[in-house]
Amino acid sequence: MAFGIRRPELERWKQDVADGHISFLTHYWVDHRFPGCTTVTKVGCSDIDKLVDWGSRYGLQREWLDLRNDYPHFDLFGSRQAEILRAEGQLEQLNKLVKVSK
Fold first, then answer.
1. Could you tell me if 93 and 41 are in contact, meaning their C-beta atoms sit under 8 angstroms apart?
2. Residue 99 and residue 28 in contact, taking contact as beta carbons nearer than 8 Å
3. This protein's superkingdom (predicted)?
4. pLDDT band at 3 (very low <50, low <70, confident <90, very high)
5. CA–CA separation, 50 vs 99, rounded Å?
6. CB 2 within 8 A of CB 27
7. Which of 20, 46, 63, 98 has the least CB density, counted as fewest CB within 10 Å?
8. From CA 37, how far away is CA 26, in angstroms rounded?
9. Could you give the CA distance from residue 85 to residue 62 in angstroms, rounded to a whole number?
C-alpha cells in the first residue's frame, strides 16, 4: 500500500519516466513481505536499456524490473535505498527517509 505522495509529484515522475529520464519517487509503503521497510523509492525510465544500464552500476539486475505497467522501474528499499539515493545526490528523496525514521 502506497501513501504520502501528492498527485503533482506522482504526475511529474510519470512524465519524466515517459520522457525517457531516470526519475526517482520515494513514498511511504507497507507490505507484509518486507517487515521493517516503511518507504520505497521507484526509479523509473521508459527506456529500459537505459534503466538497466543505470541499475547495473548498483548491482541491480534486469530481472528485478517491475514491468507490469507503463512505467518501468526498480523498487528500492532498506539500506540499499538510502545508499543509492545518497550516491545519486537525491537529497530531497533521502530527506523523506530521514523524516520516517525520527
1. yes
2. no
3. Bacteria
4. low
5. 31
6. yes
7. 63
8. 12
9. 19
Is 57 in contact with 80 (CB distance < 8 Å)?
no
Residues with Cβ within 8 Å of 70's Cβ and at least 6 positions away in sequence, in order, are 18, 46
HEC string of 10-38 equals HHHHHHHHHCCCCEEEEEEECCCCCCCCC
Q: Retrieve residue 63's grid coordinates.
A: 530481472
Whether the pTM exceeds 0.85: the reply is yes
75 band by pLDDT with thresholds 50, 70 and 90: very high
Could you report the per-residue pLDDT of 4-53, keeping only the tens digit for each? 788 999 999 999 999 999 999 998 888 888 888 888 999 999 999 999 99
C-alpha cell at 72: 518501468
Confirm if 42 and 28 have CB atoms less than 8 A apart: no
Side chain identity at residue 65, one-letter code: L
